Amino acid sequence: MPRLLKSRRELRQRFDLYLDEGEVEQLRDNAAAARLPMSTYLRRVALRQRIEAPPPAANVARWRELAPLANNLNQLVRTCNAGQVPEGIYPAVAALAEQVRLLRLELLGAAAEDEEPPA
Amino acid sequence: MIGKITKGRGFRGLAEYVLRNGRGQIVAGPMAGRTPRELAAEFGQLRRLNPKLGKAVAHFSLSPAPGDPPLTEAQWQEIAERFMSEMGFDSAWCGVVHRDTDHEHLHLMACRVGWDGKTISDANDYRRAEAAIRGIERDYGLVAVPDPPRKKPKPNPTTTTKEEDAMTDTTIPSNPFPPDDPHHAIWPDGFEPGRDLAELGMIETVEGIVATSASVGEELPERRRRDMRRLTVEPGYEPGLRALFGNELATVYKHPGGAVLYFRPGPGRIADAGNKLTSLGDMPEAQSAVRIVAIAKTRAWPSITFTGSPKFVELAMREAMASGMKIIAKGDEQAAILAKLIAEKQGGMGAMAGPSIADDPILAPLAELYDLPTQTSPRTAPTPAPVAPSPASPKPEPQPQRAPVVGVFPAFPNLRERLKERRHQQARTQPQPPDPAAPQTRKPKWF
Predict the structure, then answer these.
(1) Are the beta carbons of A64 and B115 closer than 8 angstroms?
(2) Taking CB atoms and an 8 Å cutoff, what residues of chain B touch A66?
């Protein structure tokens, strides 16, 4: 379970921090990226606590796209274990192979090419 | 099928419960993890989309009735997806079937953080879950569990009942007669609450509008005024008006500031604020005066004061005097009108003989005040405004015949003292001879 935010009752001490505008903007962006309130983000950074940033939106979107494919794969495995080969298995396996290839590329940080390079 | 809803802070404990020792089988959900540890890590990553939400875990359990046939894995998957869809969970969730008990049941654990980082609403979740389960029972041929008894809502005194609404919703059709038709003038106003409220708002806010109205003349304590304003929401308010006006009262429209009374025939309405009555629309001034004074008389206002045109004020004062109400005049103009009416009353006393004090069983004891001598203390007026004179004020010479009382009965400030003084005077001037018929009683020793 991630660290919960502290309640206002606990946070009764305050002090002023002087920054220039650029630093404030940078801190604000970092806090927004971590989906944390700015004061919580600053406190955690200053106290060397772990910043649990959410997964990138692109990763979450890819994770969601893969969910039905994973379901299909599970059903396929169960059917094969039961000794039956259902119809339409080949397009599903082809799509699965393509998705796995994209996932490998994405996990390495390399973008997939949409079109064939010119000869 | 019955459903249960709980919310918690951590996924790990719930995942351990539903999957430990291989007791559960994952049948539905977009999660990639298969073990409690994997599932908890996956959920933990996704809940970071909204770190402010403490109770990010929702746990639903759906349990069919003991008599239901066992469901297949595909059916459980459909049921789980349908239930989560109807509950609005477009987020990460996982469905696990338990078959290690007497009858199988489904656990659904879900992340309450949506893909966009917003919390998935749990408003009315019990009611929505109940509706979803009833639909699942119906479509899958499961035993229908009766709905739990609902608590009766507490009666709210501010809300009106259906019967009362029926009165306020009564609509009066629009005037079918052309303006030059004589029937046009006597057609009642159509039921238009918006117009009533706008008219009242203009009267209250715009300076220079002299509303034809009547209100309580004296400064009353706040508690008394509040009680008067509350009259319009009392249950006996409308029946009382109907008893007073009969079929003449067409509609009563209640609004937060009081009520508006619609009459037939004829245009115009009367806005009732409890302690103030205002004539709206084109109601003739004579009708306004009669109706307003009748309502004020029924409410036993201690005094009444009027605003409006001199004609209305005169008509209303005449009505109020005939009803025996105490009138307080505003300004010199109204004082002159009141003085004129009083003079009319006193001048035509014989012709306009009203009810005599002696005829009234309640006021009959006051008749002896006519015989009081002149040295009684003079009556002081309660307010500086001109008030109709009291016919019961002491007269300099005794009159052989008591004059009939008309007009206003003001208060008698020193009634007790005056009666006592009179009895003493009678005892001094006319000693009563002993009555031989009276039984001779012995005085007690302590006298």
Answers:
(1) yes
(2) 32
pLDDT digits (tens, 9 = 90+) for A61-111: 888 888 888 788 777 777 777 777 767 777 777 777 777 777 766 656 555
Q: Å from A65 to nearest chain B CA?
A: 9
From edge to edge, which strands make up the β-sheet containing B304-307?
B249-255, B258-263, B269-272, B276-280, B212-216, B304-307
List the single best residue of B16, B109, B115 to mutate versus A (max A Cβ within 10 A): B115
Please list, in sequence order, all residues whose beta carbon lies within 8 angstroms of the beta carbon of residue A6, skipping any fewer than 6 positions away: A40
Q: Do B48 and A37 touch (CB under 8 A)?
A: no
What pLDDT score was predicted for residue B375? Answer: 43
Ranges in chain B, pLDDT < 70: 155-176, 186, 348-413, 429-447
Q: Is the dihedral of CA B84, B86, B87, B92 positive or negative?
A: positive
Is B117 close to A1, i.e. CB distance below 8 A?
no
CA atoms of B51 and A34, how far apart (whole Å): 9
Overall residue count recorded for chain A in this entry: 119
The closest alpha carbon to B51, from B5, B119, B122, belongs to B119
Chain A residues in contact with B50 by the CB 8 A cut-off are 35
Q: What's residue B433's pLDDT?
A: 57
Question: Distance between CA B393 and CA B48 in Å, rounded?
Answer: 89
CA distance B156 to B159: 6
What Cα–Cα distance (Å) separates residue B80 from each residue in A63, B183, B373? 20, 69, 100
Q: How far is A5 from chain B (nearest CA, A)?
A: 7
Tell me the ipTM for this assembly.
0.72
* Segment A11-63, tens digit of pLDDT: 888 889 999 999 999 999 999 988 888 998 999 999 998 888 888 888 888 88
Distances (CA, A) of A14 to A5, A23, A43, A114: 17, 19, 11, 53
Closest among B110, B124, B115, B113 to B61, alpha carbons compared: B110
